[in-house]
Amino acid sequence: MITNTNHLDGKVAFITGGNRGIGFETARELGKLGANVVIGARDLQKGEAAAETLRSEGIQAESLKFNITLAEDRQAAYDFFDQRYGKLDILINNAGVQKEIEHLSPMNQTSTVSPAVLYETFNANFFSLVETTQQLLPLIRKAPAGRIVNLSSALGSLTLHANPASPIYGVKLLAYNSSKAALNSFTIHLAHELMDTPIKVNSAHPGWVKTELGGKYAEIDATEGSRTSVKLATLPTDGPTGKFYHLDDELPW
Ligand SMILES: NC(=O)c1ccc[n+]([C@@H]2O[C@H](COP(=O)([O-])OP(=O)(O)OC[C@H]3O[C@@H](n4cnc5c(N)ncnc54)[C@H](OP(=O)(O)O)[C@@H]3O)[C@@H](O)[C@H]2O)c1
């Protein structure tokens, strides 16, 4: 059981796609720091099971039915945080999809990737994420020091993709990579709009993480993979905004 008080007491965090993988571990770590964590899950039963696991560890956790692509779920999320907390301190835009690897061999079918895969990927990773953030922003403005963390990927870096010496140079998944590049653009643009507010907006590369999305050959576990999200969610007043990080390392756009 967690008995210490610490710096996230009184804060509420919403983690989309928080029922498993990096999102679940991010919820756990923020909860250990004292935050009330709300797990967004498109399957409410899975969300509630995840929240129950955290509650059994002494964390203040709730679940909310949240499919990022559904306008009614985005509205319901706004209503939930408005009525229950009157604010939102931390938004972890974690839910994301990667729909290409199972179809791809070799890892570059840029000339043939289907419009459906492009659309579904952008819908979850970019359009719906932008709409979620826009919808919840009035509540984030009501928090004393809002933090928005966008789960991007090193695969979203155009600079790394253009560099033959980069370790990700060969991983050319057009839909996923360009959706994360677009998300990085959102980070820069929103941080610019909010630069005169206490709100900080940053992109996170979690590392290559053993999850359903990352696969079994990935390098780190989901707890390690949550570190960058937690770090960016708990930035101090003089911390960065409009940047792209993996742990303490700033990544090129
Ligand atoms: N794993 C890596 O190596 C890696 C590397 C770089 C970046 N990332 C990014 O990190 C984030 C988390 O990835 P992960 O590895 O933890 O993936 P994961 O284990 O596959 O989990 C993805 C989560 O997103 C949820 N989700 C998918 N579509 C959704 C939708 N339409 N509405 C709401 N939730 C939805 C899933 O819900 P269900 O359980 O219902 O499917 C699940 O909770 C993603 O944005 C990913 O792009 C991961």
UniProtKB/TrEMBL annotation:
* Annotated keywords: NADP, Oxidoreductase
| Signal peptide extent | none
Alphabetical list of InterPro entries matching this protein: CBR1-like, NAD(P)-bd_dom_sf, Sc_DH/Rdtase_CS, SDR_fam
Please give the start and end residues of each transmembrane region: none
Residues in a coiled coil are none
Q: Family assignment?
A: Belongs to the short-chain dehydrogenases/reductases (SDR) family.
Q: What is this protein called?
A: SDR family oxidoreductase
Q: Which organism is it from?
A: Paenibacillus agricola
